[in-house]
Write a structure and sequence with these properties.
about 400 residues; alpha+beta; Immunoglobulin-like; Glutaredoxin; five-stranded mixed sheet; four-stranded mixed sheet; elongated; disordered N terminus
């Protein structure tokens, strides 16, 4: 999957320049060679550079070269085609930059070892300029994200999410604009992550699907033989399927699929048995920290609205019965509707309700129709106030 491949990369800041007397444009490609990568990295004297392809089967070595006493290295070789690659310096932790190489590319990289993964200078390819701009914006976002993490526990999850979305939006808006203007650019392999619903469809603009389709079609024309072209096409299809299911779930017309699972004592409790009440289906687990942090708010809202026709139907993705029971008791989850198949992520509930992370909530009305998904914290409280005013 493209997102998993991108997860292997240390996304960083890249600035554009070029070297002079050892210009990469002058490197001859002979004997079947179809790429050249060279440069000078101050502080990397006598260190070995490794060029690796990132595949679903892991990292595959393409070439390696030991830098000279000035930090100059040069690689000429053969790549199987357009794809995601990385240039790594020795065993230095984090000293990796991504390269979306295409056959016949000649890439020049200069910089300093201390800032290699954040401020290398790259030129020589169609994708160098957009990579430079994107990495600059991503570097700022990454730094701000580290500061945001420090706020955990001091502000609400809602406020953290809002701040995160504002910060990430700067990167995403840039990436989407660039993909629209040049859909066949190889670096769109990286940019595409900005158009995917990484935080779920609640925070995703469906217009991004059109952008992804545009890039996918351009890749199919420009790079028809690349495995990543097929990977992207499959991902776009899955996103569209997922969004259609999400839209159906939130249309207000869909009856919540039946759930019939056992409680901790082995007694079956059916979701349909709660018809006539507003029901919050809460997918959670004892091992899920965000779920446990949300539980006090859920307990408070249950106590506030339980006499007004509201209840909670908790579906645990636990695997161990004892841990599940202990969490119910410790968090004082006083509603009677607790069920699980103790199958964790193998539970058919995941596909049935179309989610891939927890906590995940589904609110259904008194007729059993789904009226909202993904509500928690203040957004859940506001919805309950609308449904059951004082």
């Amino acid at each position: 999957m493209i997102n998993r491949i991108l997860g292997l990369l240390f996304i960083s800041l890249i600035l554009v320049s070029c070297s002079d007397d050892k210009s990469v444009e002058n490197i001859p490609l002979e004997n079947g060679d179809n790429f050249a990568v060279q440069g000078t990295i101050k502080g990397a004297e006598n260190k070995t550079f490794y060029l690796e392809a990132l595949t679903e089967k892991g990292q595959v070595s393409i070439s390696e070269n030991k830098a000279d006493e000035n930090g100059f290295f040069k690689m000429v070789g053969n790549i199987p085609g357009f794809g995601m690659y990385q240039l790594r310096i020795g065993d230095e932790k984090g000293k990796i930059i991504p390269l979306t190489l295409v056959p016949q590319d000649r890439v020049e990289i200069t910089g300093d070892l201390a800032t290699y993964e954040t401020k290398p200078i790259v030129t020589g390819t169609k994708w160098a300029d957009v990579m430079t701009e994107y990495m600059a914006k991503y570097a700022v976002f990454h730094k701000d994200q580290e500061e945001l993490i420090k706020l955990q526990g001091t502000v609400s999850d809602k406020e953290l999410t809002e701040k995160y979305l504002v910060m990430k939006g700067i990167v995403d808006d840039f990436a989407i604009q660039k993909m629209n203007s040049d859909p066949s650019n190889p670096f769109n392999l990286v940019l595409s992550s900005s158009a995917t619903p990484t935080m779920g469809f609640e925070y995703w603009d469906p217009k991004n699907l059109d952008v992804l389709k545009k890039v996918s079609a351009a890749f199919e024309k420009e790079f028809p033989d690349s495995p990543l072209t097929m990977t992207l096409a499959n991902q776009v299809y899955q996103i569209e399927e997922g969004y259609n299911k999400f839209s159906e779930m939130n249309s207000g017309d869909k009856i919540a699929p039946e759930i019939a699972l056992n409680n901790p004592d082995g007694k079956e409790i059916r979701l349909s048995s709660l018809k006539g009440q507003y029901v919050l289906i809460d997918f959670w687990a004892s091992w899920c920290s965000p779920c446990r942090r949300e539980n006090p708010n859920l307990v408070r809202l249950y106590e506030m609205y339980k006499n007004k026709g509201f209840t909670v139907y908790s579906v645990s993705l636990d695997k161990k019965l004892d841990a599940w029971k202990a969490a119910i008791k410790k968090d004082n989850l006083s509603w009677p509707n607790h069920v699980s198949d103790l199958m964790q992520w193998d539970s058919p509930m995941i596909e049935l309700y179309g989610f891939n992370s927890i906590p995940h909530t589904v609110l259904i009305d008194k007729e059993g129709k789904i009226i909202a998904t993904g509500l928690r914290g203040s957004s859940l409280e506001q919805k309950l106030k609308e449904l059951m005013p004082n």
